[in-house]
Amino acid sequence: QQPVQSPQAVILREGEDAVINCSSSKALYSVHWYRQKHGEAPVFLMILLKGGEQKGHEKISASFNEKKQQSSLYLTASQLSYSGTYFCGTTGGGGSNYKLTFGKGTLLTVNP
Amino acid sequence: EADIYQTPRYLVIGTGKKITLECSQTMGHDKMYWYQQDPGMELHLIHYSYGVNSTEKGDLSSESTVSRIRTEHFPLTLESARPSHTSQYLCASNQRGGDEQYFGPGTRLTVT
Question: What is the number of CB-based contacts under 8 A between chain A and chain B?
Fold first, then answer.
């Protein structure tokens, strides 16, 4: 089942913060976050495997609430290079934990 | 840096032609995937493989077929291309379920 991302699009000024949400109606084994710039392949940002576990890299971090089957991506003090489409991908448990099902994406635009 | 390659990068072909999109990775990954992505849209899994001689259909029905005779090679074939096949095709791989998926640069296919 496809995860639901919100918002669909967000426009920021450089230095502002943003939160992108990803929710699923099914139990999740993992949540993956990718960023894709126009005309390029998706680039991996992070994986969250355990409920409540928060992982981050510099000014981009994420959380995973296993109970609510939700994940949020936090972009702090956004930079122009953060622009792109952000996708969450989810895997279920058991034998389906190899396959990623992606959400529809959130288009992030950072303006000077 | 990920070592996963796709050829050709761009292909314009007439209706009814047979085409093969190539995907190779040098990381020794067992699991490989094919995604289809229309411009500005989400990624849809169309085929995946757990290892040599193992292939499965993905969540999105596709008229294409795949083979996995060697670990490093996962080609996708369309026996008779149609305009509805026009899209971007992305290949990805990882070693274990739940791991980061490494994406190739993609093949942009246009069927006239």
Answer: 55
